[in-house]
Design brief:
CATH class of the largest domain: Alpha Beta
Number of helices: 13
Largest sheet: 6 strands, parallel
Shape: globular
Helix content: 40-55%
CATH architecture of the largest domain: 3-Layer(aba) Sandwich
Number of domains: 2
Order of helices and strands: HHEHHEEHEHHHHEHEHHH
Strand order of the largest sheet: 3-2-1-4-5-6
Strand content: 5-15%
CATH topology of the largest domain: Rossmann fold
Length: 348
Amino acid sequence: MKTFNIETPDQAILADLHHKVNNKTKPVGSLADLEVVAVKIGVIQQTLTPKLSKPTIALFAADHGIAEDGVVNPNPQEVTWQMVYNFLSGGAGINVFTRQHNIALKVIDSGVKYDFKHCKGLIHEKIDLGTKNYLYQPAMTKAQCDMCIEKGAAIATRIYSEGSNIIGFGEMGIGNTSSASLLMSTLLGMPIEDCVGRGAGLDSAGVIAKKQVLRAVIDKHSSVSSPEAILQTFGGFEIAMIAGAMLQAAELKMVLLIDGFIITSALLVASKLNPAVIDYCIFAHTSGEPGHQKLLDYFKAKPLLNLGLRLGEGTGAAIAFPLVQSAVHLINEIASFDSASVSNKGNE
């Protein structure tokens, strides 16, 4: 599997960044979490004047073998490829919010169970026509898992080479909350029952059935232990590619904007492969999926928003992006006490 050289950002600049933010014409700490974000981006970029260039969301789509029998998901599997066409035609939630905030959107076929042929606007990186059903066998081979990491890394590099220094991640794949739950359970040693939610809209009986199926999956693969093997066994092609993209983006010192439950499960995988990836992450929101809050607690993360979103697609990242912009504007554009000739006695 590809390895990544992710440098922990030098903290020597931290004092100067805090001084700059605290010397703005406002009470110290009065812009709260926006100040925290401004400082973090300054540390990532190693500058007192951070900037955001060509924000991009990379949306990875793939199908999951577990979804074929319909037990863990209320929607039929063909919704995955149908939504890919919706993304490409501009009609989905993520299209609306990326247009609103001038964010570039890249749609990647990581492993959808459909032949898109030479569909215009789609990035064709298909590994296979969906993963295998992990109720019976590992979701993917080691070679496929390694390929996902490499392809995800290449996509992040391509986005960076186009001038982007901030990247968000989206996903589409019927059944992928099951994969996220399994990754969370096995990587954190938590009971699967504590990691499972309604996904795309299961009722209470459906959630019970989903827990039973995923418990059987955990029991079947109880000997799997390494992060690489866990990803190979329970992951989706889109989740594995996202993990590779995250690791490469962090190596390139990009700002990573983290969306909801599935994206945070991909980050969990990435962090187990290289913990330094966390230093480059800003968490966009807390989703309505119950496992997400537990993942955020694990990362000691305080997301920017808590709107109960559970759409996926990267929509939470897109909606939160203007707040990240505001953080950068505050550190660069709010006047200092000296430049505005305002007394700062109250801030001393």
